[in-house]
Specification:
Layout lengths: L1 H10 L10 E7 L2 E6 H21 L8 H22 L3 H21 L4 H9 L13 H23 L1 H6 L10 H44 L2 H41 L4
Antiparallel strand pairs: 1-2
Helix pairs in contact: 2-3, 2-4, 3-4, 3-9, 4-9, 6-8, 6-9, 8-9
Length: about 270
């Protein structure tokens, strides 16, 4: 019996639903380029947003309804409650980036909750490598954080000019503290994208691993009571995961906006 459980545990891997797996590869010169399931998810999210957002906002009706009402409500909330208190008169210059960051992160988080591979296996019996939580991939969240990093410093240079941006890179401190504060600020500016990437990545990985582990209990114990408890637990945690998907998209956008606000304010 112990050997049976050991074999089941060895075959079951809670990381399997979140790992990046290649769909196909192609050659560019002497380089092999692999297109993974997470790259596919990112592409689908991009296409969905490019199609859905313009369709939702194309109507000029005075009282928005349906999807238009939802999208416009979110956009107004992000502008009035998130961006305006931080960026103030500069809000409209960067609101496009803020909206894009939120909707793109949210779309990736929500798409990661859709069990595309498992549904296809159940319906057809064939295994595919499509779908998967792209924000549970450190390369994806890292790329998003790098975009926020460059957006932060480019915005600061654009608003203040290169020389004034360098001069105002540290808060007003005594001259003898300037070298130390400059060093700390430089370190901080490079740590910020790491925190953005790791925070989003870790939360997404943890949530999907817990869900996979709960479902794995069914394979381990093969008991109806455990199966019912596992399914109920997965349903309950899925609602929490839904909340976390929205929360992490908001946190990523909030921190990106805060970093832009710090870089564009001369008093910083």
């Amino acid at each position: 019996m112990a050997g049976l459980y050991t074999g089941v545990l060895a075959d079951f891997n809670p990381l399997l639903p979140i790992v990046s797996r290649p769909i196909f590869t192609f050659s560019v010169g002497r380089w092999e380029v692999a297109i993974s399931n997470h790259m596919f998810t990112v592409t689908i999210a991009m296409v969905l947003l490019l199609v859905a957002i313009p369709l939702a906002t194309r109507s000029r009706r005075p009282v928005p309804k349906g999807l238009q009402n939802l999208v416009e409500s979110v956009c107004v909330f992000l502008r009035e409650q998130l961006a305006m208190p931080i960026l103030r008169e500069r809000t409209d210059r960067y609101i496009g980036f803020i909206w894009t960051a939120f909707f793109f992160t949210l779309c990736l988080n929500l798409m990661g909750m859709i069990p595309i591979e498992q549904a296809v296996v159940l319906l057809t019996g064939k295994e595919i490598r499509l779908g998967g939580p792209a924000t549970a991939n450190i390369w994806v969240t890292g790329a998003m954080a790098i975009i926020a990093f460059f957006m932060t410093h480019i915005s600061g240079i654009k608003e203040q000019g290169l020389w004034h941006y360098i001069v105002n890179f540290t808060p007003p401190v005594p001259w003898w503290l300037k070298p130390l504060i400059y060093l700390l600020e430089i370190i901080s500016s490079f740590v910020r994208p790491f925190t953005l990437a790791i925070r989003l990545f870790a939360n997404m990985v943890a949530g999907h691993m817990v869900l996979a582990a709960l479902l794995g209990l069914i394979l381990v114990f093969k008991n109806y009571g455990v199966a019912v408890a596992s399914v109920l637990g997965v349903v309950a945690l899925s609602f929490i995961e839904l909340l976390i998907a929205f929360l992490q998209a908001y946190v990523f956008t909030l921190l990106s906006t805060l970093y832009i606000g710090l870089s564009t304010a001369p008093e910083h």
